[in-house]
Each structure stands twice: as C-alpha cells, then as structure tokens.
Write a structure and sequence with these properties.
Number of strands: 15
Number of helices: 11
Order of helices and strands: EEEHEEEEHHEHEHEHEHEHEHHEHE
Helix content: 25-40%
Strand content: 25-35%
Shape: globular
Oligomer: single chain
Radius of gyration: 20 Å
Length: 324
C-alpha cells in the first residue's frame, strides 16, 4: 500500500509518500480500505512536533477517515468485510489501508457518501460536543462563530442552525462570508473591515451573543468575549491564529459568563459512549439531509503538502480530503 509519511518533523514539504507492506488486523482490530482521509489544522502542528500528541516517527498525518472494511481481527464482532465505516485515530489515516481498534469505528448507512462522511468525526464531533454538551445551546439563542469558513467553523454554522440557533458567522473576506451564508448563516461579519465587538452588539440589539464558538484565538478573542450577553458561554476550541489570547478575568466576573474549554480528543477517551452517541446523531442528521459536510477540495496523497499549506494559509472553506 501507499502511505503519506512524516519521517522528520517539519513543515508539510517534508512529507513523503512510501510503499509499505499491507497491514493485517490483530486481535480486536479492523482493516479498512480508505475511501478518503480528512485533514485538520492540528495536522500541521503534529508534523512539526508542536501538538499535545506526539506520535513516534514515522507516522502518517490524518486523524479521521472513511472506507470499507477489508478484514477483521480475532474477537471482533459487529463488523464484517464490506461494511462502510468512519473512524478516528488521532493520526495515521493518510494511507490506502488503515488498521484501527474496532471501538474507534462507527458503521455508516449505505445512503451516505463515504467521501462526505470522512470529514464528519473531528470538526463535527468537536462542534456537537461543544454546542450540546458544553454550552448546552438552546433553540432561539444567538451563536457567534469565529473563523466560520474553516472546517470547524463551518461545522458550527451547520450544527448551530440544526439546533435552532440564530447564527452570526465571522470571517475575513467577502468570499468566505458568502460561503457561510450558503451553508445557513443568518448574519455575517467581516472582521478584517468591521469592529467585531460593535457589530456583534448591533446584531443582537445591544444584548450580546449567548454563545461564542472560537477555534481561532488571537487578537479577536477578547473582543468576542466583550460582546457576550449576561451569562453567555465562550467556547475555547483552538488557536488557529497561532496566538493563545490572555483573557482579563474581570470580564468573566462582570458578565457572569462561562469560559468553557472544549478538548474533544480527551472527551472521546473519558466518555467514549457519549462520543459514539454524538457520532450516531451526526450520521442521522446526514442521512436525513439536515447535515452536509462542505468539502473544500480533494487532493491525491502526493498533494498532501499542498493541502496542508492551504489549511495553514486559511484559504480553506470547509473540509480538505486526501483521496488515495
């Protein structure tokens, strides 16, 4: 099989494609022929050794994938050859065959396209955990999504609408905001041209937003927090801007608001049943036509560096897929 490998920590250009022996599943494992692997911003950190998870070299990037079961190991029940599945491994998905523990896989209904399903687990799983489990978003509330055109942001726009929120999408260009409107955003703010705090206040009649979803961090975080409503919830998703903001705690006191950390990877370990229930909910929404994963582009394995570069430059609208 072919695999994209990180053999030396560094930028995307250091990745290589190698031929490796086809792997066989061990006890409790399942071999999956990959239909597509999805990339996320943190893949650019993992290959540099700058993420909280540091796999041994060499490894493949790509935390999530979809495909068809090709073989099952001893003791595996619930899966058989030919089943359509999606899976999460933290890394290792950018290859033609992935071997994963059976507990990391979820069956996919035949009506769902495998390429779309490939991008469902990480950003959409993170977002459903954030909005439902952490923020407890309620119908009729206002949700502001920073970096709304990226993979995580687009997921928040879509899921926020499904959950009945009024969604304000925040992004950095008219093109990105047009994309946000196309996937359901009610209002948009271009924070390269408009003052974020002022516009959020204006769009909520001075009340402020009930929930802020922030996968970006950086200079706009404090402005978004200042625009939250009384007893608002600020979701810390990640730091795509590269800067971890310093939040004045007096704002939290004065607004009676909550700053909530969202570490989906840890959630999958601590509450695997809760995570699987969320994944099944996402698949149900997709099967019902309520949820459609927006795919920015599909790349060959040899183009993985180009794909990660587009993510790093924040050119991406939706999900980026590697298709073997």
């Amino acid at each position: 099989m072919k695999a994209v490998l990180c053999e030396t920590l560094g930028p995307p250009e250091t990745l290589v494609v190698r031929d490796l022996p086809d792997p066989a599943p061990g006890p409790g494992e399942v071999a999956v022929t990959v239909a597509a692997a999805a990339l996320n911003f943190f893949d650019s950190l993992i290959i540099r050794g700058k993420y909280q998870f540091k796999p041994d070299l060499p490894f493949s990037p790509g935390a999530e994938f979809s495909g068809t079961v090709s073989a099952v190991g001893e003791g595996v029940s619930g899966f058989s050859a030919g089943d359509k599945v999606i899976g999460y491994g933290g890394w290792g998905a950018c290859r033609e065959i992935v071997v994963a523990p059976a507990g990391k896989l979820v069956r996919v209904p035949d009506t769902i396209d495998l390429e779309q399903a490939a991008g469902l687990i990480v950003t959409y799983g993170t977002t459903l955990h954030a909005l439902a489990d952490r923020a407890k978003l309620r119908p009729g509330e206002t949700l502001a999504v920073l970096g709304a055109a990226g993979g995580a942001g687009a997921a928040a726009v879509e899921i926020g609408k499904i959950m009945g929120a009024r969604v304000i999408a925040v992004a950095s260009s008219p093109e990105k905001l047009a994309f946000c409107r196309s996937i359901g955003a009610d209002e948009t703010i271009d924070y390269s041209r408009e003052d974020l705090k002022t516009r959020l206040k204006e769009l909520t009649g001075g009340k402020g937003v009930d929930v802020v979803y922030d996968p970006v961090g950086g200079e706009h975080a404090e402005a978004a927090l200042r625009a939250t409503a009384w007893e608002g919830r600020y979701l810390v998703i990640g730091f795509a801007a590269g800067e971890i903001p310093k939040i004045p705690l007096n704002l939290v006191l004065l607004k009676g608001c909550d700053v909530l950390g969202v570490f989906w990877g840890k959630f999958t370990e601590v509450d695997p049943e809760g995570d699987r229930a969320n994944t099944r909910q996402l698949l149900d929404w997709m099967a019902e036509g309520k949820l459609s994963v927006a795919v920015h582009a599909r790349y060959a394995m040899e183009e993985t560096a180009e794909a990660l570069g587009a993510i790093e430059r924040r050119e991406v609208k939706g999900k980026v897929l590697i298709v073997p």
